[in-house]
Amino acid sequence: MNGTNRITKTAARSEAEEFLDLAVTLGYRLLSEGAEISRVEEAVTRLMQAYGVPGDVFAIPSSLIVTVCPEGSEPVTWLRRIAPHGTDVDGLERTYSLARALCAEVPPVKEAKRRLDEIGKVDLRYPVPVLYLAYFLAASAFAVFFGGTLSDGLLAGVLGVFTGAFLRLLTRLRVNAFFQTMTASFLIAVVSQTLTHFHVIRYADATAIGALMLLVPGMMMTDSMRDIIYGDTLSGINKFVQVVLTAAALLLGTGTALRLSHLLWDVASVGISLDVPYPWWIQVSFAALACCGYCILFNIRIPGMFVCMAGGGLGWAAFLAAERVTASGLFAYFAAAAVISLYAEIMARVRKFPAFSYLVIALLPLVPGAGVYYTVEYLLQGSRMQSVEQGVRTAAAAGLLAVGMLVVSSIFRMVGVARQQRKDRAKNARG
Fold it and tell me: I want to staple 308 with a disulfide (CB 3.0 to 4.6 A). Which of 111, 353, 361, 419 is the partner?
């Protein structure tokens, strides 16, 4: 009898480990492709429910823990570390679509794992020359978006290309992210200040910010606050620490460059770029162009690229409208984030992909990247009160972006849960 029990327990553990391999691989791929923590946990949990396997999942940006509790055997837990990674929206969408299909079809575990492995072998990334074009487009469009002239935008694009090449080189040499950010921001600020001194460009701040947008942790700052508000506290704290380290690297790099420029040229301007801002339609157009560059960097394919560009332009138009109506820039961040989140949720249901795919790009024009730059410049010029005010405003803007996203996403989530509960009750009534 004891021998039979041992065989039964061994078989149960073997089946549990086979399913764990599938669940952990799914969660690992989603995290490595840049999915939200809540989405990863939700996808793995739904997979468990579809296969009738009790268990639990816990994820943070650097690791994934999955536990299953097979009947008649002890719980089995696997942990997998998540290496530093970027965002691959195309891979994320394909993996998420497969996860939905597996939950609906519930094929044998070996077949499901085979299909997941096949997706992992497909790498549809843009070639390197196209990536450099994306660096140019993103930096140049943001330079004009922040009030620079067309020549400022052109030089910012060139700086963006060199920044991208420099970061790729340091990554191949396995240089840590802190040093990468510090040295890249130093070079960007030095070159922009030098070009301004020799009258090659007009606005050093717009040129520098355009290229620095490739480095600023504004999106991660918003993500960290959103995770904390949503209840994923450890994930939020993890991201917030990365934000602080990246901001410190930007502070050291940019601050050193501006101090050096002051010693060499006796100037280190805190500009507000154009005295008269561009018309709203030009701002919206360049916001969409900047989003196009980031679509390539985040590996978004057509037609998703046009959806994201439209979202970026829509979000900035909503910001300008809310700012004009309410005369409050901070409330405008909340309103614009809510509009973008609503747009992303609708597009997600139309195209059957995660809302994150559209949200992460469309929010970029709203990310308070310029605030980081001006906070440093004011501090170096001795304007401590202005520096503190700018820093608080930057943090508040990021927080309001997170709240705006959460309000809309929470409403859609509640509606989805209520709909699923109605389906479950109807199914149970028929059964």
Answer: 361
